Structures are given as C-alpha cells and as structure tokens.
Amino acid sequence: MAHPSQLGFQDAASPVMEELIHFHDHALMIVLLISTLVLYIIIAMVSTKLTNMYILDSQEVEIIWTILPAAILILIALPSLRILYLMDEISNPHLTIKAIGHQWYWSYEYTDYKEVAFDSYMIPTQDLNPGQFRLLEVDHRMVVPTEAPVRVLVTAEDVLHSWAVPALGVKMDAVPGRLNQTAFVASRPGVFYGQCSEICGANHSFMPIVVEAVPLKYFQDWSTLMLEDA
C-alpha cells in the first residue's frame, strides 16, 4: 500500500504492474535528459553576449530538432503500445469475478461459484482492529488465488464508479448498464488496497477495494467455506 512521503509507485504485485513501472522509469529518464539539455541551452544563451548567425538561421539545426523529437516520441510510443496490448490480453482466465459498484460500496459475485456473492463495506474508524488501515479496510475482502489469471467484470448499479488496485496495475471504469472487463495475475500472496477512482457522490472516498491474494490451496479452502455458509 502507499505510505507517507512516498515518491514512487507501490511495489508491483502483478506482471503488468512491473511492466508499467519499467515504462515509467524509461520515460522518466528521457524526460530528465531532455529537461537537462533544454536547461543547459537556456543558461548558455542567457549567460553570454555572443551570438552565432549560423545557429539563429541554420537548416541543419532545423532538421535536427525536427527529427530528434520524432525519434524520441517513437522510443516512448512503442513500449507504451506494447503494454496497452498486454493489459487488454485476457486468455483463458482461471477465475471470473463480477465487481459491482454501488453508492457507496462494492459487491462481488464469483461466477464460477454461483453461491459465492457478498457486499464489501468499509470498516468505520471506530470499529478498526489494531493494525488495520483507516479508510482502506473492508469487512469482506475479494479473495483470489496467486499465479492464476483472474478476469474481473466491472459494472455499476447507479452512477459511474471505477475499480482500481494500483499494486496490481488495474483500473477499470464501472458504468451502469455496461460490462467492462479487465484481468490480472497476482504474482505473490498479499493484501492489496485500492479505492474508487471516479467521483461518484458524497461518500466517494469511503468505498475502498481490498484484494487478498492467497495460494491456491487456501483459496479452495476459503471458497469451500463460503459455499457451506451459503
């Protein structure tokens, strides 16, 4: 989860998020180099009284500063497009979960287990146990198996919401009357926090998302227990 004074992204918990972090570092280095070069040129030009007529009106310079930005944009665009296609790739999911946004909570339906469905409400501050996080913990977590492709069908019952879990590299709009889908693979066990990322009304900031990734054996035990309770 995020922590105070954090400068970078949360630690990646899925292959897609790892790719996004690598792309961020790649783009940031390009931006840093461009900014440094531009700053150097500005300082050099304002700190001297000398001018070169061939720099002010040079065909070669015009060609360079036309071709160079185009090449830089290509270097940024190609890995960006690759990640976009990776994020849209959904192949043979092992589990499908339907996430439904409400004002102001989430409900989940495990389509492979017809009886497994529950609402997920934020735990009020006064009811938190020691170690739980304020405004982030819920009474029922979305439990998924690790190292297994999980498809999430996202929709809403009333207004626009957005289902987002930064550590998993997932953000999908929840639109009433429409089913959007996204997918992720949790590469390690853990508890990953997210929040509704579309302003949806007065309690928009009080409908967190908690995904708990556990090994397959424990997921099977959990699903069996949920079926028995149903």
Summary keywords:
230 residues, alpha+beta, Helix Hairpins, Immunoglobulin-like, 2 domains, five-stranded mixed β-sheet, three-stranded mixed β-sheet, 10 strands, 35% helix, 26% strand, Cupredoxin
Architecture overview:
Helix 1 packs antiparallel against helix 3 (59-88). The radius of gyration is 24 Å and the shape is elongated. The mean pLDDT is 90. It has helices spanning 15-46, 53-56, 59-88, 216-229; strands at 95-102, 105-110, 117-120, 142-145, 149-156, 161-165, 170-174, 180-185, 190-195, 208-214. The chain folds into two domains: 15-88, Helix Hairpins, CATH 1.10.287; 95-229, Cupredoxins -  blue copper proteins (Immunoglobulin-like, Sandwich), CATH 2.60.40. With 230 residues, it is α+β, with helices and mostly antiparallel strands.
Please outline the helices and strands:
Elements: H1 15-46, H2 53-56, H3 59-88, E1 95-102, E2 105-110, E3 117-120, E4 142-145, E5 149-156, E6 161-165, E7 170-174, E8 180-185, E9 190-195, E10 208-214, H4 216-229
Parallel strand pairs: 1-5, 4-10
Antiparallel strand pairs: 1-2, 2-3, 5-8, 6-7, 9-10
Question: What Rg do the Cα atoms give?
Answer: 24 Å
Helix content: 25-40%
**Strand order within the widest sheet?**
3-2-1-5-8
Provide the residue-averaged pLDDT.
Answer: 90
Total domains: 2
CATH fold-type name of the largest domain: Immunoglobulin-like
Uncertain regions: pLDDT < 50 for 5+ in a row?
none
**How far is it from the N-terminal to the C-terminal residue, by CA?**
32 Å
Shape: elongated
What structural class do the secondary elements suggest?
A: alpha+beta
CATH superfamily of the largest domain: Cupredoxins -  blue copper proteins
